Amino acid sequence: SEIVIEEGTGFCGVDGSVDSNHSGFNGIGFANTDNATGDGADWQVNVPSSGDYTLEWRYANGGSANRPGEVLINGSNQAMVDFPVTGSWESWTSASAEIVLSAGENSIRLQGTGSEGLGNIDSLSVTGNSPQAVACG
Ligand code: GCU
Ligand code: CA
Questions:
Q1: Span from the CA of 65 to the centroid of ligand 2 (angstroms)
Q2: How crowded is residue 29: how many other Cβ atoms within 10 Å of its Cβ?
Q3: How far is the CA of 40 from the centre of ligand 2 (A)?
Q4: Which residues belong to any copy of the CBM6 domain (predicted)?
């Protein structure tokens, strides 16, 4: 099954702000990291058993270069994701990563590896065996 996490349950925060000044996002806004290496956003999910999951971020990158990110699951780097330019901050598309989640609660962090931080992140979708968005912490 698939869940989509917007700015509600399961979204734990961003090193920056939740903004709404570029149209096309779903929900109340999008996560805008400050433009610095290591700045990112955090989510929390629960799964019934260890297994493979697909993470997909809806994002916009109106900058002039890719804004690559690394995916930390429970603090361990499991994947790198490219977030190529989308042409404007109002043009949204998606980028994904395949990762492994452990039984129970998992923290998911996406952080920029370049000095511009991440693109603007609208949502995180988690697909696999019965994921649930849960309270952070
Ligand atoms: C602009 C844009 C922001 C974006 C930022 C960036 O300021 O309005 O939404 O996050 O560029 O370069 O990251
Ligand atoms: Ca930004």
A1: 13
A2: 17
A3: 10
A4: 3-127
Ligand 1 site: residues with CB under 6 angstroms?
19, 22, 32, 35, 63, 89, 116, 120
Q: pLDDT tens across 69-110, in order?
A: 999 999 999 999 999 999 999 999 999 999 999 999 999 999
**Unique residue bearing structure tokens 């920056």:** 16
Is 0.90 exceeded by the ipTM? Answer: yes
Mutate to test the pocket of ligand 1, among 34, 89, 91 (most ligand atoms within 8 A of CB): 89
Cα separation, 76 vs 56, in Å, equals: 18
Q: Which residue ranges form the domains of the chain, and what is each CATH number?
A: 2-133 (2.60.120.260)
Are 87 and 54 a contacting pair, CB within 8 Å?
no
Q: What is the Cα–Cα distance from 3 to 53, expressed in whole angstroms? A: 11
Is 0.95 surpassed by the pTM of this model? yes
57 CA from centroid of ligand 2 (Å): 15
